[in-house]
Structures are given as C-alpha cells and as structure tokens.
User: Fold Winged helix DNA-binding domain-containing protein from Actinomadura gamaensis.
Amino acid sequence: MTEILSLRALNRATLARQMLLARETVPVAGAVERLGGLQAQEPKPPFLGLWSRLEGFHARDLHAALHDRSVVRATSLRGTLHLMSARDYAALRTTLQPMLDGALKVLGDRAAGLDRPAVLEAARRHLADGPRTFNEIRALLQEDFPEVNDRALGYAVRMWLPLTMVPTDDRWGFPRTASFTLADTWLDTPISDVPNDEALVLRYLAAFGPATAADAQTWSGLAACGAALERLRPKLRTFQDERGRELFDLPEAPRPDEDMPVPARFLPEFDNLVLAHADRRRIIADAYRPLLTTKNLRVRAVFLWDGFAAGLWELERKRKTATLWLRPFEPLTRAAVTALTSEGESLLRFAEPDATDQQIEVAAPAEG
Assistant:
C-alpha cells in the first residue's frame, strides 16, 4: 500500500532539503547545488536566502564564490536569472534549451527575420572581445541586422546563447547594469551539449521533493520532466499526497517527522521555495497565494512560522534607521512575535549593518 504523506510531512521534508530546519555549514557552491539554484532576478535576494540557510554566512562568502567562478549568475530555470553552481550550469544548461526556445514565443511578430545561426555567430563574435552589457550587445546586433527588432535580437541571444553575468565589487555582487560574457570562456570549460533530463529531475527532487511531475515542470519550465521521472521510476520511491496524487522522491532523502519544530525564518523576494511546486500548499496556503505576487510580477518576501508562510516582510531604510516590517496574514501569537523579532534583528544586522537604529514593526494582517 502506498504511503500517504500529509501536508505537514511534505512541508518538513522540503524544509529539510532547503536547509531551513536548521542552518548548516556548507560551502556556498555546494549549498547552491543543494538548493537547486537560487532565483536571482535581482542580485540582493540570494545573499539573504543563503544567510537564512547557512551557519555563519557572510556576504563575502558569496562574493568569493562568484569571483572564483564556482557559482554563476545566468539565465536558466523558467527563463529567469538564477545562481547556479558552475558545475550544474555547465552540465544542465543544454537540458533547459527547449524551454528557453519556447520563451521566444513572447516576441510574437517582433521575431520576424531572426536567423538563429547568424545571430549566434554575430553575438559570439562581439563577445569574443570581452564582456558587454546588453545595451551594447543590442546596439552591435542592430548594426548587423538592421531589419530585425533590436529587443528581439537581445532577447534571442539571452535565450539561445549560454552567457554568464560578470560579478563586480558592488555590495550585492553586481551593478544595476551588469556585463555578460560567454559562459564557456568565463568557466574555461565547454558547456555540455548533451541534454540530461534525468540529472535535472534528480537535482530537483534532492532540493524540493517529494514532488509530482507537475511540480518538477513548474520549477524547471520543462515539459519533459514527467517522462524523465517515468524512466527513473525503478530508482525512486513513490508516495501519495492527501489528494491522491503520486509523489516521487529519492530513496534516501530526508523526510522528517511532521511534528519536528521549525524556527522562524525569513525568505527573500523571488525565493524558489515559494515557486518550485505546482501545488504550493506545502509552503503557502491557497488563500494567501494571491498576496505573494505584485501586479508587475515581483515575488514578495515572506516569513515562515511553524514552517509555513505566515506573512510578508520588507525592509525600509530612512537615513540611519532600518525598519523591518512584518505584515502577517493573520494575527501572530506572542511566541511567534518573540521568535520573529529575534530572527529579524539578526537579519537587520546582516542586511543593514551600518544602520545606527534598527527596529521591528508588526503591521496589521495583510490584505489583498
């Protein structure tokens, strides 16, 4: 008889893999691999995400990993910018290409005239001279292809060509307008040209399982995840959730007791924990999910209490005063406020170390 995993059991299993049951001592590149990558649409959130998960983490640790090239910031999962380990990026970038190709549908008529081989050859030629911003790349490509929409040219290069962003000494690792370079040049290693759906799915389960095929597809953007799971079935364990859906998992992956205590935790904007499943109830209740995303598709920062998203948070800086605002979905217990305040004070010390006054404020429950 197939074992049924409760929502709380799925919650604890996922938090264990995401290093949110307790901070762990893991090198940054290894942590990024275990987490299945960190969404990095903006440069700051991954620093906060690693701070919430790693014991003794300092911003300089991620800076070092970016500069020694063991971690890269590049277009990958769901066609968005992510931090990935250099090893995972080189091994899995080609696996993601069908999804990246599909992303070009958003161009519509603007894609008229795009000649893939010619555009790729031109982009490689321009980048062979060194890193360039996308404003520079688009301008050069427009000279090569004057009849093609410049935005379409730039977007196609982002999706078709393996590129990495070049880190700087900026506080959060990258300037507002960062430069890109050829990934194989930056990493001094070829990008594998062999798709490996199975390796990608195994990476997903290690970071976010137990999960359904639909969950894996939501995380990666790849329709091939279901077929890969079927091929891997003999090597995996299967469960059911409370709605009768089949869940796949690695045999030896952690599945803690559903009553295991979970500390208060703060997740940054765009954190994959709230994005990596089709059914996200293991982290955030359906009733609160609409509050998670803004009208312009920003994914808000959430705090966890008892392992589940219990509200939103944001940092406000006015001169030398840094304020952490908690906006709970429902009224918080005294114990929750105490624990969140303690963790929030540590977060403020990390995120705003030069503030002379640091405050925690609890707002009224959030509304849609």
